[in-house]
Amino acid sequence: MPTCLNCKKMHSNPCVCMGCKKAYYCNETCQNEHWDYHWIDCKEQPIEASPRHQLAIRACANCKGIGKMVCCGCFITQYCNKMCQSIDWKNHKEICLLLHTA
Predict the structure, then answer these.
(1) Quick check: is 37 in a domain?
(2) CB 7 within 8 A of CB 30
(3) What's the rounded Cα separation, in Å, for the pair 69 and 96?
(4) Were 65 and a residue from 35, 40, 60, 95 both cysteine, which residue would form a disulfide, CB within 3.0 to 4.6 Å?
(5) CA–CA separation, 78 vs 58, rounded Å?
(6) How many domains does the chain have?
(7) 20: containing domain
(8) Model confidence over 54-85: pLDDT tens digits?
């Protein structure tokens, strides 16, 4: 089982960093708290996507800023912070539930 980089707890269904796909967190709160430490390592990791796809993946779904956290429901949609995620939830909820159950 992966260990959360922030709180060091083991989780069977962790969130994964969408930038490097190597960092695991137990939830969005831990991911956000650890971002100040992880972003340097994350930027050094090669991303296996075209430059156009990287921009789409890294954009906050609400404000189009840099996505620093990923939805723990679908593990795809990114947000720059919890407030943007809360604002976008009414738009994201249906697709999140579909992706989560797929």
Answers:
(1) yes
(2) yes
(3) 15
(4) 60
(5) 7
(6) 1
(7) 15-101
(8) 444 578 899 988 888 888 788 788 888 889 99
